[in-house]
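Need a sequence for this fold. Nothing fancy.
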């Protein structure tokens, strides 16, 4: 019998795509019968129930419910995509894995999902260029701010170490492409620009250009699968304080993207001008895009000097590059028109205070 894997956020864009990737594999140790998918609602349970995996409706903010779900389903590996900002969810999952470790006597693993915007000046990063092989944990602690994502990154490593749990941190960049999950199929950034542009009849860009790290959703899910396969094979992988992974395939030149969206939307008669305009204010941008005002610059104008090493050393080979990315903007527009049916909830936990 193989080790059991729990994917949190399995109805989300990344989690759902990870789940679809995992269950589509016919070789290796990842097997559908060993996968559990954590979701929030009964509707999501029904949507995922046909996949041949164990679907669990659980409130991850409820410590007792998380502990019961992990122990009852004998979870050995958690792939956590549900939230990068809620430290109590991380704490509940790690503590539950500790209980599972004590019961089984075997290694347990927690794979966290963070965001690359933290490692740019706009995200409070003060150390300049950073490789994922650097001592990032100590660097994050030195910054000492109250950013919820950075606090959660630190908590992952500290609590995992204290509870005998092996931890890894996949630091997610800008993600694009159609998701393969059963519920949410659209990413955050580019679809937000598209739906907002259609609403306002104009495409807006920020007054500062940026080129953040980027990755296609299929390449990102391939990294999660590579990590899990190596864990199931009991191969050594960088973990704990050394277990950061930057899944960066290329950069996303944002002004180029906005101009391509303006051309594509104008050709469809969806906006009035084929050129992008400058946002009148950050406040307007945050309100219209649905992004937290407190982090709007980190999300939309940051570049960062990230250098990915760990994933490539393990054999990760992304199939999407800059040219292919820029050539996919028409498909991004079509995807929003076809698939924009589920309200984004990724910022629900921080929007109330960050926009005040």
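Here you go.
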């Amino acid at each position: 019998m193989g080790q059991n894997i729990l994917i949190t956020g399995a109805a989300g864009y990344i989690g759902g795509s990870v789940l679809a990737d995992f269950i589509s594999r016919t070789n290796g140790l990842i097997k559908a019968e060993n996968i559990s998918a954590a979701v929030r609602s009964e509707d999501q349970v029904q949507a995922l129930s046909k996949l041949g995996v164990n679907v669990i409706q659980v409130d991850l903010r409820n410590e007792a419910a998380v502990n019961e779900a992990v122990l009852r389903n004998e979870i050995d590996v958690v792939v956590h995509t549900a939230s990068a900002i809620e430290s109590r969810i991380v704490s509940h999952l790690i503590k539950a894995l500790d209980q599972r470790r004590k019961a089984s006597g075997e290694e347990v693993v927690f794979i966290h999902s963070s965001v690359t915007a933290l490692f740019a000046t706009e995200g409070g990063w003060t150390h300049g260029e950073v490789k994922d092989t650097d001592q990032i944990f100590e660097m994050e602690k030195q910054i000492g701010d109250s950013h919820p994502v950075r606090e959660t990154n630190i908590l992952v490593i500290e609590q995992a170490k204290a509870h005998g749990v092996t931890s890894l941190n996949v630091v997610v960049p800008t993600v694009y492409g159609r998701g393969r999950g059963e519920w949410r199929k659209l990413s955050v950034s580019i679809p937000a620009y598209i739906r907002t542009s259609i609403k306002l009849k104009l495409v807006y860009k920020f007054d500062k250009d940026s080129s953040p790290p980027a990755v296609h959703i299929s390449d990102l899910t391939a990294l999660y699968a590579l990590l899990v396969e190596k864990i199931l094979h009991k191969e050594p992988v960088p973990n704990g304080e050394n277990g950061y992974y930057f899944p960066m395939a290329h950069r996303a030149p944002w002004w180029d993207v906005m101009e391509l969206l303006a051309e594509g939307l104008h050709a469809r008669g969806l906006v009035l001008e084929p050129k992008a305009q400058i946002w009148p204010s950050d406040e307007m941008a945050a309100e219209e895009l649905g992004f937290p005002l407190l982090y709007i610059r980190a999300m939309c104008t940051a570049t960062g000097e990230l250098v990915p090493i760990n994933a490539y050393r393990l054999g990760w080979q992304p199939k999407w590059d800059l040219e292919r990315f820029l050539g996919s903007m028409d498909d991004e527009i079509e995807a929003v028109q076809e698939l924009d049916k589920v309200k984004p909830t990724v910022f629900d936990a921080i929007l109330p205070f960050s926009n005040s």
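For context: Confidence is low (pLDDT under 50) at residues 346-356.
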